[in-house]
Every structure is written in structure tokens, then in C-alpha cells.
Write a structure and sequence with these properties.
- The protein is α+β, with helices and mostly antiparallel strands.
- The chain has 2 domains: 2-12 and 22-168, 2-Layer Sandwich (Endonuclease, Chain A); 199-243.
- The protein contains 8 helices and 10 strands.
- The chain has a 7-stranded mixed beta sheet, sandwiched between helices. A 3-stranded antiparallel beta sheet has the order 8-9-10, with no helix packed on it.
- The N and C termini lie far apart (71 Å).
Length: 245
Amino acid sequence: MEWIQPYTVEPGTSPCRQGAPQPPALRGVMLFAGKEEGRNILQNDVEKARLSITIFARSVSELQTGLWADILRRNTAHKMRIRLYLPRESREATALQEDSLGEHISVDYLDNIPGITCIIDKNILWHCSGNYLNSPLEKSIFIRIDSGGACRQMVRDLTNFQPPYWLTERLRQAKPFPKTPMNDDPTATGVVAALPPASPIPAAADKDASRKCPRCGSRLVVDYNEDGSYFRCSGFPCLYSTLAE
């Protein structure tokens, strides 16, 4: 349960060491080892919600039955804003169901979601470890933290460093890098060994670099592209360019 400490320490104080007395801020934390007691208090918090509810769930099935389904139905009827975060691998399965969720429910996708986390009105944080619907009573642990700061920190921790879906798909389909001299030579220490030789600068480049643009009179500079070297005008927005002879 060490992960609770960053969410329960007052700003400007240090987390307590193992065995040390808990700081006063921990009084806002409630732990429930049984389903029924935790469920009743969570349901009471949901009924008092007025602004929004955010739920991080590990699977779609956890939201289709039981208390979570009741939360979605009730708050959709009251037109309350609900934001769901689901595992990225369930994106295709969930896409078919998004239309039936209602206009007040938005869905996003993350890579790693530990347990079920519910944030009510951006001020009350519930975290349920284990499978809330199917775990036996002795394996169900519910944590309630009454702190807006804890809610904000939890959202940052769960959503930080999450690459967008299109990027993970591109990385998954990407081919491995081809072998380069740097990879083959264990003595190579820099990326220079893997770079192709640069295109030579034409002999006339030095004397022609002082030429003026025939359109605007600005100085021409030497530049390079995949076809070799060329002269371009340095005066923006003029776009004049010519091949370096």
C-alpha cells in the first residue's frame, strides 16, 4: 500500500518512513476490506455527485454489470458528464458500443490501468484493487481518499506518458532498422559511422555564394536536398532557387 503515501501527504511535508506515525492527512483515507460496506459508501458518493465522474477500468465487462452499470445509467439520465478510460487493446471491441453510451459519456484509451479508479466531482477518489465484481470478499480492498489534490495527481499519473493510439500502431508495424557500419563495428562510438557521405560542395559554390537574387536582390546561399546542392534566396518570402553549377 506504499503507493497511497504520495496522495495523502500535505504539500510541503515529507512522506513518513516505514514504522513512523502517519501524518494527519491520512485521516482522509478510508480502507474497506469487504464489498458491501465499500459499495454502499461509494454508491452514496455517486448519488451526491453534481459535476462529473471519471472512471478508469481494466475491461469493458467491469462496466456492464453491477454498480458501475448503475452509475452509468443513473448519471446518463441526469445528463452528468462521465469520462471513461479503457485499456487500449479493447479499442476495437469498444468502438461498437460507443454509440450506445450516450452523448454525455466520452471514452479514451490508455495502456496500463491498475484496478478500477473512480473520481467523483474531482474531489473524491476511489480505488478498487482486485476484480470488484468477481473477487471474494477477503480479496476486495477499497480505498477512499477525500482530496482534490489526490484526484488531480492520480489523473496525471495514470494519463502521463501515454503515447497516442496512431503512434503505438506505427511502432508495432515498423520494420527493424537495417544494419549499419556502426552496428557491425563494435569500435564505432558515434553516429557519424552510420551516416552516408555528404554531397560534395561544388567548386564554384565559394565564388558564387556572393551572388544576388535576380528577383529581390538578396544574397543567395548554398543549400542541399536529396538531389544535391543548389542556390536559394535568403530573403523571405522570396522562393527563388537555381541549381549550383
